[in-house]
Design goal:
Elements: H1 2-21, E1 26-37, H2 44-52, E2 67-75, E3 81-90, E4 95-102, E5 106-113, E6 120-126, E7 131-139, E8 147-151, E9 153-154, E10 163-169, E11 181-189, E12 196-205, E13 210-216, E14 221-229, E15 233-241, E16 246-252, E17 255-259, H3 265-274, H4 277-313, H5 315-324, H6 326-339, H7 382-402, H8 408-416, H9 423-434, H10 440-466, E18 477-480, E19 485-487, H11 488-492, E20 497-503, H12 508-524, E21 529-535, H13 540-550, E22 555-558, H14 568-572, E23 577-578, E24 580-585, E25 590-593, H15 597-608, H16 612-624, E26 634-635
Length: 636
Amino acid sequence: MKNQLAITGLLALAVFIAACSGNPQRPYTVSGEFIVAELEEVPSYIQEMIDSGRIEVEPPIDISAVTVSVVREVTNDDGEASDEVLASGSFEDGTIELEGKIAAPTEVSISIDVGSDEPMKLNAIIAPDQGLAFKLIDQVTPASYDQLMLVGEYRIHEETEDKYVISGDLSDLEEDLAFAEVQIYGSKWNDEKQTTTNFTLGPVNPIDGKFVFEGTASDPMVVTAYVQAGSALYKNVQVIAEAGVEVGVSMDGSTLVATAPKGSQHYAVVNSWAMDEEYLAKVSAYEEAFDAFQQEMEARRAEAAAAQEEDASTAEGDATAMEGSEDSTESEAVAIEEAEEPKVASTDLAPAAEGCEHIDTSDFEPLDLWSYAQAANEDAPEHVKLQVELTDYRTAALQRIAGDLDNPIAALLAVEMRAFTSNEDQLAALDKLATSSLDSELIEQRVVPQRDTIFARMEAETNDKGLVPGQVAPEFTLASLDGAEVSLYETISKNDHVLVDFWASWCGPCIASFPKLKKLHAAFNDDGFEIISISIDETFEEWEQKSLSLELPWIDLGEVDGKEFQGTTPVAYGVGWIPKGYLIDSKGCIVDKDMQGEKLQELLVAQHGDKPELQEEVEEEEAESPDDSETEIDEV
């Protein structure tokens, strides 16, 4: 009995000592509010996109079916990550409060299951004896979108040597800030010191116009603060996040500015020119010109909509007059056709590769997005001319800073803020930094990888310009989601045409193109048309999650080694922006590249004949296609 009591006493003592030796768990709370927002008036250009089907109207959120979870990522001894739910619950009368205990500040995700394919997620940090608040806003009009935001602040809840603060006051804005959101975007060099990892803090909904962000930076780095209030206000400003420094974001007239105390890197790299009266005057002039341009475009859209409605109402009465004008219209068309010069192969293209002489290159127009240089001719809108002036002023100031190696960290930051637009100038600046007094670890972490990135970009640019219709497509072998190795030339040997399409889970235009590609794949796959999509996501998990949710029906491969655009296959194919695609025939010859879905459909129809299931879609697209449509891309 004594032995049993002794053992029990020792166990109790051990538990007591263990509890005292570590951080005791303390309570935290996560509270949320559900808000339904309605716009009194939908802008006409939004309404046009709704009517044409380019914006899908989402059903209102059924709050009674929504589940809220506080989730953290845990890693086992084998390095495998999994999600652990710390707390969960449902809204009651539009509010929710979750409670739990935690020993130290912990990164979590607020996960909101609204019944869609993927839950809405918001990253945050919970801490002992601290509360965290969020808003879930249901935009019931299709002119906006559902929002999930922290309220007022994003804090790390720790006093560390590398903590920085970005605070702001937007109360001077005339716009309604009830649903405004502020986010901080940036990138950090990863542990391997070869690539960067993007990160986002927020979004945060300001309280009375005020917000606070806390983060950590072992060395000064460039981040961007974005402010959005509905569809009328969208502004951003670059900030140098530096340990021990608080940067203030506010409005200077209609301009979003960021200021920091003298002696900080932000003051040296940004405030030294961005707060000049001359620069701020140019910014104000640009914003006024841009607002006037938008108002003019809105008025034109309204006039066009009214004219279209009037034309529709008088169409029957005009039918006879239109018949009478057919002859003159036809003669004008013939005159135009006769005036056109015959199409010939572009003289800028290299001679066709051996075995690819059959490829017709007469219609090929290369898409060149490698040059970042801006230009504005005399006929350009006023806001475009002013934007070029702003860019010139900014780059001239940053180039002066980049050339002053007495402050090498400021010079590095200026280069990272795109002081130089050409690859050659960037390399020259980085070469100087590599031999400067800059800390050797920073050279290894940030200068050398940037040089490698530029070299890869230059190689990709060269490859892109060389990979044109009539040339042979490079071979590659990549793995699918289940690990099966698939080679390009094995695939093309079994098909007449293969579309190689580069994409990523974060690329909106890529994903927007998939419905059209799915229809073409379904219509022509049996005729020998196949698609190989290649994800350049940073991680396998990002690729897998998005691919499975999209249910891609074709061959889905990935080069997800963390290098994104600098991966072996993207560089070989000259991928500097996405979506980027190459149409390849059974001989491995490039037929076309960077084509939109409509052009691809025309080619497939010419090759295999029309398909009944596409006829109705073609008629709808012709009726709904806007005159000012633009190609959307995501650039490197």
